[in-house]
Amino acid sequence: MRRITILLITLLGLSACAMPDPVWAPDEAVDRARVSSSGAPTLTLFSVINVKSGNGGHSGLLVSAPSERVLFDPAGSFQHPRLPERHDVLHGMTDAAVDFYIDYHSRESWRVVRQEISVPAAVAEQALALAKANGPVPNAFCTNSITAILSELPGFESIRSTMFPENLQADFAKLPGVSTREYHDNDPDNNGYILARGI
Predict the structure, then answer these.
(1) For the chain, percent helix, then strand, then coil, each to nearest 5?
(2) How is residue 88 annotated by DSSP?
(3) Signal peptide span per the entry (predicted)?
């Protein structure tokens, strides 16, 4: 019961899982922003973790498929006028946009864990299709929606359904070939003033 109470407090404290209204960008905005990665297809899990408690506050999934690179940011508050969104899928995810996403979440109370794994092109395209078809995610269901997508992909059968970002992070770490990086800065918790340049 204590763990559930801590989770609820954490989710309320971090606004990352608090965007209530679904968004649907127009076709021309999505087409104009569309980018694809020149590198190998990858899936990248972002976990936002409380520095003091180690509990998770948010999860996001970057899908770098041959056809397009998008961020599935379920129930997330992250946004930028040059990154059109459709039902929690943000288009136009250049390297600069990814850096901005990390900086947006990294602050004095929260660190960001980035876990990346190379996948076959077909798996990346499947993940892309599942993310686009998912629809808007209810508040606090960010991690659960990502586990639902991952569990349908070949090679990700070990990913268990969970509501806790730290549990998904632990499962993802066990996948063969995962590379991990962590980000933490001293930005104040009310870091809404951050400006994104170069996106």
Answers:
(1) 30, 20, 45
(2) T
(3) 1-25
Q: What is the Cα–Cα distance from 182 to 172, expressed in whole angstroms?
A: 14
pLDDT in tens, 124-139: 999 999 999 999 999 9
pTM of the entire predicted model: 0.88
Spatial contact of 55 and 9, defined as CB atoms under 8 Å apart: no
Question: SS3 letters for 113-174?
Answer: EEEEEECCHHHHHHHHHHHHHCCCCCCCCHHHHHHHHHCCCCCCCCCCCCCCHHHHHHHHHC
Q: Which residue has the tokens 């999505």?
A: 30
CA distances 134 to 25, 68, 114, 159, Å, are: 16, 17, 22, 18
Q: What span, in angstroms and rounded, lies between the C-alpha atoms of 188 and 110?
A: 10
Residue 160 burial (CB count, 10 A):
12
Q: Identify the band that residue 195 occupies on the pLDDT scale cut at 50, 70 and 90.
A: low
Sole residue written with tokens 């990248």: 44
Percent of the chain with pLDDT over 70: 85
Q: What is the DSSP letter of 24?
A: B
